[in-house]
Design a protein that fits this description.
With 464 residues, this protein is mainly α. Helix content is 67%, strand content 1%. It has a two-stranded antiparallel sheet with strand order 1-2. Helix 4 runs antiparallel to helix 6 and helix 20 packs across helix 24.
């Protein structure tokens, strides 16, 4: 059926609208009273589905908090204070041993968030959060049976991430760093809680070393080289503007999403530690262990001295061969000895440099690693031939490392070959670690040089 009308058959309507004279509006739809009566309830359901009562409580209780650069400095200081508060903390977060050090997140660490940073009474805040009710079901918004998502400390960190993200007083780089530091502080709480569950008493260091040595690079701890680096990686992921929690951090518009975010963040270090603990138990059951480093590795002392030319060729060929395989090249027991002697060198940066060197050996146009390895080997043979007493004491590895450290760190050295080695290895460290701290680069450079020498001259130990 075709509908067509001539000009005179159109009638003007209010607002200038023309409709056909023959047109009649349709009868209104009959809406059942039950549906009309339920409209307020329906609106309440839709509103409840995106309830932001938690955010509202914080906006009221933390109205005095100004998220500016001063606040950011205090946040960074609070996070750093936890990492550095005890030698065990420093060694744990700067290294790879798990269960050996006693690391605890105490009530004092928790309270700093409220008393020092936010300057609020967490008991008042908790009462207000726990009194929130769903407008439809009248049930509590926060289920206190869910330990992670009901913890007022954890919820406060989510709000803090939201507040930092929306602060008008910080630039984007400051916001990124602030969110990472705040999330790290919460991750310390999650990680140490799980750590205590798996290791209520300090673990055997030798078994822990053996367990780490068995890890593949599928394990985050092996990839990032220290627990501190793992935590920062997790915090960076969780707070990314492209991550799965970006909307929760930006808007905090859904109370349910706050709980989901907390459970996800808590689950990540839990799973990492759970996987490591499985490896630890396997190593423990098999009776594997790493012996004390000072007596573990015999340096091929007399063999080195017998035939310097042939020996140089053999050992250079050996170190080049193991360089291409990270698991063969990097030996934790050797790293531990070097770190113990070189107190100013971050272990994580040495591990990063060793890994980078292994992965890039034979794959760069400049051939930095290949040239450095060859020069280190050549210089080491010449140096140790002149200082035979260092390699005759084959079991005294720490003493050898200490002596090499003095030789390679000496600012008075004018040996052109050594200066060239320092330059090459300095470039390797800078590319591997992205660090611009000259003292850190210098320490890591020396650690790398010594590691290559010790790894090379322990050939017979690892091949016998």
């Amino acid at each position: 059926m075709s509908l067509s009308y001539s000009a005179e058959e159109w009638a003007p309507q209010e607002g200038g609208l023309l409709v056909p004279l023959a047109w009649e509006p349709p009868a209104p739809l009959a809406v059942p009273r039950s549906i009309m009566a339920s409209r307020p309830a329906l609106e309440a359901v839709l509103e409840a589905a995106h309830s932001h009562q938690i955010r509202d409580v914080f906006e009221q209780e933390c109205a005095h908090v100004r998220i500016d650069q001063k606040f950011l400095r205090e946040l960074v200081a609070m996070e750093a204070r936890f990492v550095n508060k005890k030698p065990d903390h420093i060694e744990f977060f700067g290294g790879t041993l798990t269960g050996v050090h006693v690391v605890r997140f105490t009530n004092e660490d928790r309270d700093r968030l409220f008393t020092d940073l936010l300057e609020i009474d967490d008991r008042v805040l908790q009462d207000k959060l726990y009194s929130l009710r769903d407008p439809v079901t009248k049930r509590p918004v926060i289920n206190q049976d869910w330990k992670i998502s009901s913890d007022v400390f954890n919820i406060s960190i989510v709000w803090l991430l939201h507040a930092i993200e929306n602060s008008p007083f910080l630039d984007d780089n400051q916001k990124t760093e602030g969110k990472i530091r705040a999330c790290q502080y919460m991750l310390y709480k999650f990680l140490t809680s799980r750590l205590f569950r798996h290791f209520p008493y300090p673990a055997d260091r030798e078994i822990a070393q053996a367990a780490y040595a068995q890890l593949t690079y599928k394990f985050a701890l092996k990839q990032y080289g220290s627990w501190g680096a793992v935590i920062r990686h997790l915090a960076t992921q969780a707070t990314s503007r492209t991550g799965i929690h970006k909307d929760t951090i930006k808007f905090m518009a859904d109370d349910v999403d706050v709980g989901k975010m907390l459970n996800d963040i808590q689950g990540r270090p839990r799973d990492i530690l759970k996987n490591f603990y499985g490896e630890f138990l396997r190593v423990h059951k098999e009776g594997k262990r790493i012996a004390r480093s000072s007596a573990l590795v015999d340096i091929d002392g007399e063999i080195i001295l017998k035939d310097k030319v042939k020996g140089l060729q053999n050992y250079t060929r050996y170190i080049r061969g193991v360089m291409v395989d990270e698991n063969s090249f990097i030996r934790q027991e050797l790293v531990d000895v070097i770190v113990k002697v070189m107190h100013t060198m971050p272990q994580a940066l040495l591990m990063t440099t060793l890994s980078w060197s292994s992965r890039n050996f034979g794959h760069t146009r400049e051939q930095l690693v290949e040239r450095a390895i060859d020069l280190i080997a050549e210089h080491a043979f010449a140096y140790l031939s002149e200082h035979r007493e260092l390699v005759r004491a084959q079991s005294d590895l720490p003493n050898l490392v200490s002596k090499l450290r003095g030789a390679y760190m000496s600012s008075r050295s004018s040996d052109p070959k050594l200066l060239e080695i320092r330059d090459l290895v300095g470039k390797i460290v800078a590319q591997a670690t992205k660090s611009k701290n000259e003292s850190v680069i210098a320490a890591t450079r020396t650690g790398f040089m010594i590691y290559v020498i010790v790894r090379m001259f322990s050939m017979r130990h690892y091949t016998s």
